[in-house]
Write a structure and sequence with these properties.
Layout: H1 3-27, H2 34-56, H3 61-78, H4 82-103, H5 105-128, E1 136-138, E2 141-142, H6 146-153, H7 166-186, H8 193-215, H9 219-252, H10 259-290, H11 299-318, H12 331-341, E3 345-347, E4 353-355
Antiparallel strand pairs: 1-2, 3-4
Helix pairs in contact: 1-2, 1-3, 2-3, 2-12, 4-10, 5-8, 5-9, 7-8, 7-9, 7-10, 8-9, 9-10, 9-11
Length: about 375
């Protein structure tokens, strides 16, 4: 091999990689567009191969040190550190999640109606028949449990006893809410049937409890309890249900795609839609644990909290999000760079380094 010719031809690539790294060092990985990200991955693995060749040929130490430093700098950008992952997370909640919500809002509205209509129907039935709450939709499980029904009859709020253990209750509530949302999302894989069931049953349960409370003159106390956290909590469940309906819809109506490909197409946006609800549920659980059950906090304050959360949630979810002027490298794009950069290198019959993932021989 003509080493001088090899050095001349490869030096151009090294300089290009240096220029890209300088740009990333000064402005961040988000300063690169998709083509720049692809080029970064390509040059990184090519320079890694060049370093291996320089070592195999025992070229001068200065060249090896230069290439090693170049590869290390590129590696640190491709395999992001903790700070970069936190930045990605922040950008997802600031821009990515609201954009997914706006794009798929029809699914969320459908989930809302699947919850609301059965809830209103059961509320109406409970007003006319106080025993409606004892109806068993599922064998052995009534819409209102016997213990809860007994407390309502005695005009006792079941939430009053938890205010002295707010931190523990907040954690339990947040965990339970996440389970409900996860169930609404995950059961979308049953062609959406599970998601529909979860939404309808939760709507029926809440509607019936409100109706029975209204029969015994306790609806205002229940409304005051739900007001503080209910807006965020219910919206999170509707969004999770919408994500589940996306999965179910892709499986029921794949169009010209196979069901597998149709599912792959919606998997990522559905996952992002669900992931965004986790933070909402943590906030709702905190309010439900520390504010909602407190008897020393007036109902007017709780309604103010409800109005404030509704306003902030509306602004957060519905204000249009525009793409940044400099596209931000997404997690999937970084993953692609990583995948590309892990190409195996083998030695051919001539003793030269060759990429085994479809690349061209180096040199």
């Amino acid at each position: 091999m003509n080493v001088e010719r090899w050095l001349r031809t490869r030096r151009v690539s090294w300089q290009k990689l240096e220029e890209l790294l300088k740009k990333v060092d000064s402005s961040g990985l988000g300063s690169l567009d998709r083509q720049g990200l692809t080029e970064l991955g390509r040059l990184y693995r090519a320079t890694s191969a060049d370093l291996s060749r320089a070592r195999a040929l025992k070229l001068n130490s200065e060249l090896q040190i230069y290439l090693n430093n170049l590869v290390v700098r590129a590696h640190n950008q491709v395999y992001q550190n903790k700070q970069s992952r936190l930045s990605d997370l922040f950008l997802f909640f600031l821009h990515g999640f609201p954009r997914q919500f706006q794009t798929n809002i029809l699914y969320v509205l459908t989930a809302f109606l699947l919850f609301l209509l059965p809830g209103l129907g059961c509320y109406r039935e409970a007003l006319y028949d106080p025993n409606f709450g004892q109806l068993e939709i599922v064998p052995g499980q009534s819409l209102v449990s016997e213990e809860l029904y007994h407390m309502i009859e005695n005009r006792q709020m079941w939430t009053d006893s938890v205010q002295d253990s707010s931190p523990a209750v907040a954690g339990l509530i947040a965990t339970n809410n996440i389970k409900v949302s996860l169930l609404a999302f995950a059961t979308g894989i049953t062609f959406g049937i599970g998601t529909v069931y979860v939404l309808i049953m939760n709507g029926m349960s809440i509607g019936t409890v409100f109706g029975v409370c209204q029969d015994y003159g306790m609806a205002h106390r229940l409304a005051a309890f739900v007001a503080g956290h209910g807006v965020i909590e219910l919206m999170a469940i509707f969004i999770s249900g919408g994500a589940g309906l996306m999965i179910g819809g892709a499986m029921l109506f794949p169009g010209q795609l196979s069901r597998r490909d149709s599912l792959k197409k919606v998997a990522r946006p559905a996952m992002e839609l669900f992931a965004g609800t986790v933070l909402m549920l943590l906030v709702a659980g905190t309010i439900e644990g520390f504010v909602s059950p407190r008897t020393d906090i007036g109902a007017d304050v709780k309604y103010m909290v409800s109005a404030a959360t509704a306003a902030m949630l509306t602004l957060y979810l519905l204000v249009p999000r525009t793409e940044p002027n400099k596209p931000v490298a997404s997690l999937s794009e970084r993953a692609k760079i990583k995948a590309d950069s892990t190409s195996d290198l083998t030695v051919d019959t001539k003793g030269e380094m060759v990429e085994t993932s479809g690349g061209n021989p180096i040199g």
